[in-house]
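Why does residue order matter? Because the sequence determines the fold. Keep that principle in mind as you read this record.
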Amino acid sequence: MSRRRSSFWTLAVWLCTPVFACCAAASASALSATPAANLGGPAFFQEEGNDGQRREGRVLAVAQQQVQIDLGSQAGVQPGDRARFLPIGAPPVTGRVETVEGRASWVRLDRAAPAVEPGVAVEVLLPPGRRQGAARDYGAGVPGTTPAWSRKDAPFDSARPLLAEDPLQPQERPSLWSGRVYLSADSVWEQEELDSQSTFGRMGLDLRGENPFGAGGRMHFALDLDLRSFSADGLASESDSAARVERLSYTHGGDRFHALRWQAGRFLQYGVPEFGVVDGAEVSYRVHSGDRFGGSFGLMPEPGQDYRTGDDLQVSAFYRWVADEDERLRLTAGAQKTWHDGSADRDLLLLKAEYLPSTSFRWRTSAWIDFYDAADVGKGDGPEVTLLHSNASWRWSDSGASVGFRQWRFPQLLRYQAGSFTNFELLNASTSRVDARWWTRFSGRQRLSLRADSWNSNADSGGGGEVRLDWPDLIASGLHSSAALFLRSGGFSEVTGVRLGQSYANDWGSWRLNWESANYTPVGGDTDLLEHDLRLSWNQGSAAGWSFGLDAGYRFGDQIDSPSLGFFLQRSF
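Structure:
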């Protein structure tokens, strides 16, 4: 084995040493507790693909590397779960669940991915033993469990109301910590034209504390350590590393005892998460009807490798109206004002409506409205709808459907954003996209699903579609077989392909074998390129909080010869 090819394992050993030390400490802490099983939790409507430990959903909203999906605690999803996004005709994109609500979650992508946009399919892999519909109780310290009841019953008094006993206040509860430590590494070799190897490794800690200082608050700390390296024959090797504090915040209130909620530090904004991460403070207040209003002030970290902060300042305010205590209908209005290096930058108004009357129907829509003046080069005076997005989904006993619409324009920003645009593009460029999805089950557990989307811009148009058949136990008992045909057309190429898959789960873990063959036809070119991708993955988890995954792939064909290897290790506690 060459020195360059062995660097993958050197990276793994380098990253493993501190992580396993943290894991050992977390294991000792977890073994000291003896929690009882949690038997509560809301029921969850069975969706497409919710077989075994896999949950399928779709993307609702995107804010830089933060992605909202329509799977939440009712689906058994918890912070730290692995999410895999499946855009049509593009490679899968991975991420990790960060915050969870009842019917939605926010996922942080491992890397920026323009292909992940509203309407894209997503699947979340749950560890074995996770009970469907069980929301995590962070006060327990162990996922899916609640602490043993420690309070003694008072003597029975017939003159006293049955439920007169006051519940524990947040500051009266014990100080408990939960979280996860994780390690991942991926290495890709390119052996066709340039004999090279690129490696990316990440080690991280996500720690959450309940009542850490005896005042009833909550603390969240998340740190990532990244390592990148590249080497090739005839070229100098390159490597760099970076440490990034993803979250460091303290929150108080916002519970059943406190209408006032405040949070300070580095955090994803609570009132309007679409406004992004802020280094500052946020205050909100809940009125008796359930409505909530508030605002935030602070710096905005740049969405780069080191999360640099200090160049951009923001202030925001919001109001959220709810129709009832179940929040079946929610209307939100948020305004954000930003400055870049002391100069006025963005004036943004965000309007959202969410209607979720039952588990069989969901509708969401949002509009981002920017306000410009004469100082905004490439834009006219007045308001402009920068982003308009709406989607609706229906689910019945054995079938379901969804449809979405999205239209966006390039905003005029002084703040860093991916890409650079001419004044003509800022003034005239506009893109719209429509996506639709339908699925049905028949003859037992067999499932047929269709996905399609179409987009159009001033300069070009395109679209794609996929038809997929899932057939459990077709070849052997317990073996899940799938086959899909897909196509994608765009401004640079047309792609037609087939994808075959086999998956199997037993006491040794979840196995998946995928084969994809795709033919790429360059627009205006005369040479087709045929590429194949063979990939084998294995994931295993335990009720004690361990999860482990391996992924081996080989991409080959015309002008490509590229094996890859990756792994993921996590300990939740």
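The radius of gyration is 25 Å.
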